[in-house]
Amino acid sequence: MDKIDRKILGLLQRDATMPVAEIGRKVGLSTTPCWRRIQKMEEDGVIQRRVAVLDPVKVNVGVTVFVSVKTNEHNEAWMRKFSAVIDDFPEVVEFYRMSGDVDYLMRVVVPDIAAYDSFYKRLIGKIALTDVSSAFAMGQIKYTTALPLDFALVVDDDK
């Protein structure tokens, strides 16, 4: 990856629908070499997919809940089972295995508290959990899908 690739990624993170010709113009390349770079980054898995970012309120999932889970089960089989259970819940939009006091952390989006209660009841009906703690977001202060690119390893293209 070089500085041009990083610029391309920055543009795509802001707007994945931007035409390749425009991206090329903004990074100083013609369309074909720019397209080749994008294809290479897709093949290498740097670009995993291109998606539309939706307004959660307009699609009726405006309530965000951070769900902390503790378990007494700390083995590979249980972790695989828990992951499979979570895969069946579209309300879970992020799911992490954690260090520290909490074993797992989920970000859940739902229309309202009643929908979260329904989610919770279905979840505990599918798998035994030691402790589940829910924190409702009162307001979103910052949200982005764009990753910081300042840390991306860049080949010195001046040599």
TrEMBL record:
One record GO biological process: response to amino acid
Any one GO CC term of the record: cytosol
GO molecular function: sequence-specific DNA binding
One Pfam family here: HTH_AsnC-type
Domain of life: Bacteria
SMART domains named in the record: HTH_ASNC (SM00344)
Coiled-coil ranges (or none): none
Domain HTH asnC-type: 1-64
Keywords from the UniProt entry: DNA-binding, Transcription, Transcription regulation
Alphabetized SUPFAM superfamilies for the sequence: Dimeric alpha+beta barrel, Winged helix' DNA-binding domain
Protein name per the record: ArsR family transcriptional regulator
Organism encoding this protein: Devosia geojensis
Upper lineage: Bacteria, Pseudomonadati, Pseudomonadota, Alphaproteobacteria, Hyphomicrobiales
